[in-house]
Design brief:
Order of helices and strands of chain A: HHHHH
Largest sheet of chain B: 2 strands, antiparallel
Low-confidence stretches of chain B: 502-507
Oligomer: heterodimer
Number of strands of chain B: 2
Low-confidence stretches of chain A: 78-87
Mean pLDDT of chain B: 86
Mean pLDDT of chain A: 85
Structural class of chain A: mainly alpha
Number of helices of chain A: 5
Strand content of chain A: under 5%
Helix content of chain B: over 70%
Strand content of chain B: under 5%
Strand order of the largest sheet of chain B: 1-2
Distance between the termini of chain B: 36 Å
Number of strands of chain A: 0
Shape of chain A: flat
């Protein structure tokens, strides 16, 4: 069995630490719920028990990740872990960050009504296509066509066919 | 039986048939495309069913379920890339057969096996659902709580990754479900002073985020791809009666295994196909061919994974406990359509439950016909580059989350849980226990606290009531199993570990 990827171990440790912090926050916040005293447990007990369990499990996972990370450093260069081991690291962090940033901006544009649904969606879809694919004239044309087409299709389908709301 | 026959005209109505055709075809296509899953499709479709009645909505979603489990066979065989997690095992033998020029025969075996698996498990669904519902009516609050705990531990035990990660995921899901109004006192809790959190998280944005957004993020991070699909000769896909006779034992055995695996709460089709494949290999006269293009391997995997569909519907319609992740979404869909899942479903909404049962059979028939007729065309759809598919999927995620309550807050919730889901997958923490925790958390807390109220704070019924005690003992055994295995002789442990590593699958 190959050694787990060090990046994945660091990520696991970071996530575990984050979950422990969330668990502490939840434990404190749970106590603010009003308890009318009509049942044995009340509204705070279950979230508090769960937060303690999560903190304990996350702490164990943090320790295990740190120990394995130190072992991999001691044994030298590792081979990347399989996806089943949670070891294969993402290879396109920049593209992922850019697409997620574009998504957040798109949602902000809809939430704060910076743009109408059609232009915002067309621009968003086209931008994502360009981020993920070639930016030659053919790629640009395909991206714009998909953006415009998908915006029109969803506008029609959601408002006329599914009868559900669209942002703006 | 008479209720089933009464449901048939509703299912065979033109509108229902059209919905089933749409569901099966879209399920097959999405299930075939690597990077897209049936879970994602169904989660994104639920918000679109708001304008439908509950019967039509469930017919569409069940048809998608059947189609998506079957569609994964196509890419697994032609591209060595499972279109859905349930088809991972099919790649072991499907792709080698395709490479040796027998792609049509490999896909054909998969289609026939899928159909037989679906029919066998459907018979179990029909035969077991009413008696089980009657038994479930005798369950009290403590029994339900213990059953949910057992389901959570079970899914944590069989999920990919360590038991520690599985339990962490499950408890996290339970915690997410506690945000909002307390189920007994209606006091707001864990709202952190945000008005939008007083009502808690809607289930669908959480599911869409965890499954769809995290999947898209993972595909983007790995780099969008396209693949070139092998040519598929249609005439080779049709099996002769003599071929089927030679595999009838394997077909039946794998179907039964898949059905019973599917019944286990929270356990999905991929586990069913792993177990059936392993059993088929052990029982085969030519086990050395497994992994190198064995028809028995394809038959075992596909019969079992399709059998889990109706198997997983059994606890859903009888107990209100999802038998798989997709069933968890179906349970959410029932609630959204004001249908209360549980053993009383047969009395309160019999037309819905019998529509689910009947449509599962009809959808299986449609799947068989469509896949035999149109698989070569579906294979061409897989040539679409992910750089065009992923933005479309992302857009549908946003629109689907918004459609739940017409609130942009749900979209932000979806994005946040998408980030969490991506982080969990990257760290090897399984998502299935998280989802089961979110879905069953309210049931668990409500039943526990209601039980304690009725027993005046006495906890002993949890262990003195036989059914409740049995579920808890099972849960404890499952928790202790990894440590009990350490007591076994070292040689046998090593042999088991090698077998697990050879058949390791992702959740």
């Amino acid at each position: 069995m190959s050694n787990p990827d060090r990046t994945a171990l660091l990520a696991t440790a970071a996530l575990s630490a984050g979950l422990m912090a969330v668990a502490v926050g939840v434990y404190l916040e749970a106590g603010r719920a009003f308890d009318p005293g009509i049942d044995v447990l009340g509204p705070a007990i279950v979230p508090r028990v769960l937060s303690v369990a999560i903190a304990a499990l996350a702490a164990a996972l943090l320790v295990a990740s740190v120990v394995r990370y130190r072992k991999t450093r001691a044994t030298g260069p590792t081979t990347p872990g399989t996806a089943a081991q949670g070891g294969a690291p993402p290879r396109r962090w920049d593209t992922l960050a850019a697409t997620m940033a574009a998504t957040v901006i798109y949602v902000l544009a809809l939430d704060f009504r910076w743009l109408g649904y059609f232009p915002a969606t067309a621009a968003y879809v086209a931008l994502l296509c360009l981020m993920l694919g070639p930016r030659d004239p053919r790629g640009v044309f395909a991206a714009v066509a998909l953006g415009v087409g998908l915006s029109a299709l969803t506008l029609f389908a959601f408002t006329r066919f599914f009868v559900t709301g669209l942002p703006q | 039986m008479s209720e089933l026959l009464q449901a048939l005209p509703l299912i065979l109505a033109p509108s229902s048939l059209m919905l089933m055709v749409l569901g099966v075809v879209s399920g097959i296509v999405v299930g075939a495309i690597p990077g897209l899953t049936g879970t994602m499709l169904i989660a994104l479709t639920v918000p679109l069913t708001f304008g439908m009645n509950s019967l039509s909505a469930m017919v569409l979603l069940v048809a998608m379920y059947v189609g998506s489990i079957s569609g994964g066979l196509i890419s697994a065989t032609l591209m060595n890339m499972p279109g859905s997690p349930s088809s991972v095992i099919t790649t072991f033998d499907g792709y080698p057969m395709a490479r040796s020029g027998k792609a049509g025969r490999a896909v054909g075996w998969g289609i026939y096996a899928s159909f037989v698996g679906g029919v066998v498990s459907w018979l179990f669904l029909v035969g077991l659902s009413v008696p089980l519902a009657r038994v479930a009516l005798t369950f009290g609050s403590f029994e339900y709580f213990s059953m949910v705990m057992m389901a959570l531990v079970l899914i944590a035990a069989v999920s990919q990754g360590s038991m520690l990660k599985g339990l962490l995921s499950g408890f996290l899901g339970l915690l997410v479900s506690t945000v909002g109004l307390d189920p007994i006192t209606a006091s707001p809790r864990l709202d952190f002073g945000l008005p939008n959190l007083i009502a808690g998280f809607h289930l669908l944005p959480v599911l869409i985020g965890v499954f769809a957004v995290s999947q898209v993020a993972g595909d983007i991070a790995r780099g969008p791809t396209t693949v070139h699909v092998q040519r598929l000769p249609v005439r080779d896909m049709f099996m002769r009666l003599s071929d089927l006779k030679g595999q009838w034992v394997n077909l039946l055995r794998s179907s039964v295994i898949g059905t019973w695996i599917g019944i286990l709460p929270g356990v999905g089709a991929n586990v069913g196909s792993v177990v059936a494949y392993t059993v088929a290999k052990n029982a085969s006269r030519t086990p050395e061919r497994f992994g190198h293009g064995s028809e028995e391997g394809i038959v075992a995997s596909e019969a079992a994974n399709n059998a889990t569909v109706c198997g997983a519907l059994i606890p859903l319609v009888t107990l209100g406990i999802p038998g798989s992740i997709i069933d968890a979404i179906l349970l959410g869909a029932l609630v959204i359509h004001n249908v209360q899942p549980g053993p009383l479903l047969f009395k309160s909404d019999p037309e819905v439950v019998y529509a689910i049962i009947t449509s599962a059979f009809v959808a299986n028939l449609m799947m068989f016909g469509f896949m035999l007729a149109f698989t070569p065309w579906v294979a061409r759809v897989m040539n679409i580059h992910q750089r065009y598919l992923l933005p479309a999927v992302m857009l549908f995620c946003i629109l689907g989350a918004f459609a739940v309550g017409n609130h942009m807050f749900d979209v932000w919730v979806m994005l946040a849980f998408g980030l969490l889901g991506f982080a969990m997958v990257a760290c090897g923490i399984p998502l299935a226990p998280f989802v089961i925790g979110v879905v069953l958390g309210p049931v668990a807390e409500e039943t526990l606290r209601a039980g304690l109220m009725s027993s005046a704070g006495d906890w002993s019924p949890l262990v003195t009531r036989p059914v409740s005690a049995a579920f808890l003992v099972l849960a404890l055994l499952l928790l202790a199993w990894p440590y009990l295995r350490l007591l076994r002789p070292a040689a046998r442990r090593n042999r088991d570990a090698k077998a697990v590593a050879a058949h390791g699958v992702e959740d």
